[in-house]
Amino acid sequence: MTSTTDNRYILHPVWDPLLRALHWWMALAMMAQFTSGATLLALGNDMSDTLMGKVDIIHYIGGYAFAAGLVLRILWLFVGPPTARWRDLLPLTPAQRRIWRETLFCYLSGFHRPISAYRGHNAFAGPAYLAFFLIAAAQIALGIRLSLMPDSEAMHSPLMVMHEWGFFLLLAFVIVHVALVMAHEIAGRHGLISAMIHGHKGFTESEHQALHADWDAALSVQADPGNETEGLDDMTSKNGDVTKTRHER
């Protein structure tokens, strides 16, 4: 039987507007890259020069658009709000390490174990995001280098093979990412997908109370060297929270 407390949930601000904009900007750019890249891989020399030129243009524009988004996102890892910074991606605090273990056990159980509530990035997925940034940066560098080479030389270059492998690695990441986000959305019911639109995650009151202690502990880890906490006040439970009622069916 669900308690009255757990029928009420709190919408807590998590993702800032720039992070959300960069997420969807990079997602759209990657869709253009995957579509044009898959077309070039599948059809290759079977396309006419005119069609190949148009696909190449889409691939180049999409690549530079993705590169711009990636540069800003990496910069935001260091100057953005707490949930956008690199410390939120790594299991540095005891709470993050606990969530890492609990998420692993949840995955191994086939989602039969409950999903731990977490405020920003899941500590288990965070390192994968950092790996994504590194692979994406390498992929961009390879793409730029290949674009400066003559077509005949680029097609037979070892760099092209590396670029193709990078394509499949990023595609695999996106597939796994989408599948796990949907699984967390269904099992955890914290509104991961909608949070990337309006910026708020939903927690039951009991989850919010349990997480509040973790957020307070994280202040000492994410604070500035001078022990200043300016810009971290959004980690408290009173800033922008909205309480709603969850109707069970």
From TrEMBL:
GO terms for cellular component: plasma membrane. Pfam families: Ni_hydr_CYTB. Gene3D superfamilies: Transmembrane di-heme cytochromes, Chain C. Keywords: Cell membrane, Membrane, Transmembrane, Transmembrane helix. Residues 224-249 are annotated as: Disordered. Residues 14-199 form the Cytochrome b561 bacterial/Ni-hydrogenase domain. Its main location: membrane. It is a multi-pass membrane protein. The keyword Membrane applies. The chain crosses the membrane at residues 22-45, 57-79, 128-147, 167-187. GO terms for biological process: respiratory electron transport chain. It is found in: Cell membrane. One of its GO terms (molecular function) is heme binding. SUPFAM superfamilies: Transmembrane di-heme cytochromes. The keyword Cell membrane applies. PANTHER family: NI/FE-HYDROGENASE 1 B-TYPE CYTOCHROME SUBUNIT, NI_FE-HYDROGENASE 1 B-TYPE CYTOCHROME SUBUNIT-RELATED. This is Cytochrome b/b6 domain-containing protein. It comes from Acidithiobacillus ferrianus.
